[in-house]
UniProtKB/TrEMBL annotation:
<comment type="similarity">
    <text>Belongs to the serine-aspartate repeat-containing protein (SDr) family.</text>
</comment>
<keyword id="KW-0812">Transmembrane</keyword>
<dbReference type="GO" id="GO:0004556">
    <property type="term" value="F:alpha-amylase activity"/>
</dbReference>
<dbReference type="InterPro" id="IPR008969">
    <property type="entry name" value="CarboxyPept-like_regulatory"/>
</dbReference>
<keyword id="KW-0121">Carboxypeptidase</keyword>
<dbReference type="GO" id="GO:0005975">
    <property type="term" value="P:carbohydrate metabolic process"/>
</dbReference>
<dbReference type="GO" id="GO:0004180">
    <property type="term" value="F:carboxypeptidase activity"/>
</dbReference>
<keyword id="KW-0732">Signal</keyword>
<dbReference type="InterPro" id="IPR013784">
    <property type="entry name" value="Carb-bd-like_fold"/>
</dbReference>
<feature type="region of interest" description="Disordered">
    <location>
        <begin position="82"/>
        <end position="114"/>
    </location>
</feature>
<keyword id="KW-0378">Hydrolase</keyword>
<feature type="transmembrane region" description="Helical">
    <location>
        <begin position="53"/>
        <end position="71"/>
    </location>
</feature>
<keyword id="KW-0964">Secreted</keyword>
<keyword id="KW-0645">Protease</keyword>
<keyword id="KW-0472">Membrane</keyword>
<protein>
    <recommendedName>
        <fullName>alpha-amylase</fullName>
        <ecNumber>3.2.1.1</ecNumber>
    </recommendedName>
</protein>
<keyword id="KW-1133">Transmembrane helix</keyword>
Length: 370
């Protein structure tokens, strides 16, 4: 306030009079109401007095910076909160989880060969097939009885795995691998490491043949297998004798589809069993073929004649234009009645009957003399 008073005394004219506002009672409204000359003097006085106030804060900032150098640095500490025991009446399903037997013979040496665990009591073992061969790179997840994830890992090339637990209690170990039936086992952990082997069911296999209605093999047919979500699981082609094989399938429901040129595609549901072969043949119905030649008078082939095929309801099935030889060809037709119309000269219509898988030839004579 004293610095502002001195600045006003230096800048205000001596004859300004005693009606000017005091420095301690100044407000923006009061300054705005002053005449221009006096208002500018008050503003300049404020501008001269204020910067020195901020200079007084510099020692305080320097002192704070020096104190910060003496503060002790402590890293953040994170830890797992202890898992609360579930209430006795908490509802959770365990009927579908088979009990696993901890291994004691030879387990101590195998567990000692593993690296030390960061958590509590470890659960170790081998993921293997029913015949004892190991399953590498299997995904393993350990959860508690409430469904919370405790640990996660994968088996090595030797099929071995190791997961740490927060302490004693009951857990569920889930194992899965591509082309295998997933497995879940319950395990009880005490004070000693647990050696637990997990057996994954073998992959299923789907095989069969693509044939026609009379049993004739259809070679080089495209065979596609999709899961219940519509995703393509596998695709292959039938061999010389119409056979196909799809391996490494997880047991479940699938849709099997097959298609081949000159045949109508077919699809059907199929259930693949675990660790066994499921056979399913696919029957393809051949589409009828209609071909012929458009001729004018004297038997001459008519080029650029427009040929239209209608079904029994009058809907256009297909339309094409003849070439220099006057020929037309409609393929993959269902059984039924059709009408063929040729135009280019006065149009001619012919009604004919098609049988599924049959081949029909019909020449059309345009009714106009050259």
């Amino acid at each position: 306030a004293d610095r502002l008073t001195d600045a006003l005394a230096d800048r205000l004219p001596a004859d300004a009079g005693g009606t000017l506002p005091d420095a301690e009672s100044l407000t923006p409204q009061a300054v705005h109401a002053l005449p221009p000359g006096l208002r500018d003097a008050y503003i300049q006085a404020y501008a001269d007095a204020m910067p020195r106030i901020f200079l007084y804060l510099v020692p305080v900032l320097v002192l704070g910076l020096l104190l910060a150098f003496f503060l002790k640095e402590k890293p953040l500490v994170s830890h797992n909160a202890p898992t609360a025991a579930p209430a006795p009446d908490a509802p959770y399903a365990t009927a579908s989880v088979p009990q696993a037997r901890p291994h004691t013979a030879g387990g101590a040496g195998a567990a000692a060969a593993r690296p030390p665990h960061a958590g509590g009591v470890p659960v170790c073992g081998t993921v293997q097939h029913p015949d004892g061969t190991v399953v590498p790179r299997a995904a393993l997840t350990l959860i508690d009885v409430a469904g919370r994830q405790i640990g996660r890992g994968a088996s090595g090339d030797d099929g071995r795995y190791a997961l740490a637990t927060p302490g004693s209690g009951s857990y569920v170990l889930i194992a899965a691998a591509g082309g295998h039936q997933p497995q879940a086992v319950s395990v009880t952990v005490g004070e000693r490491p647990v050696e637990l082997d997990v057996v994954l069911g073998g992959a299923g296999r789907l095989a069969g043949s693509v044939v026609t209605a009379d049993g004739t093999p259809v070679r080089d047919a495209a065979v596609t297998l999709t899961n219940v979500h519509g995703e393509v699981v596998a695709t292959t082609r039938s061999g010389r004798e119409g056979g196909y094989v799809i391996t490494e399938l997880v047991a479940g429901e699938y849709t099997l589809a097959a298609s081949a040129p000159a045949f109508r595609p077919a699809a059907l549901p199929v259930t693949v069993q675990a660790a066994r072969e499921t056979r399913q043949d696919v029957e393809l119905a051949g589409g009828a073929v209609l071909r012929g030649t458009v001729r004018g008078s004297g038997g001459r082939a008519v080029e650029d004649a427009r040929v239209t095929l209608l079904d029994a309801a009058g809907n256009v099935v297909d339309t094409l234009t003849t070439g220099a030889d006057g020929m037309f060809r409609f393929v993959d037709l269902s059984s039924g009645e059709y009408t063929v119309i040729a135009a280019g000269y006065p149009p001619v219509a012919t009604v004919l009957q098609m049988a599924g898988g049959g081949r029909t030839e019909r020449d059309l004579q345009l009714g106009h003399e050259d």
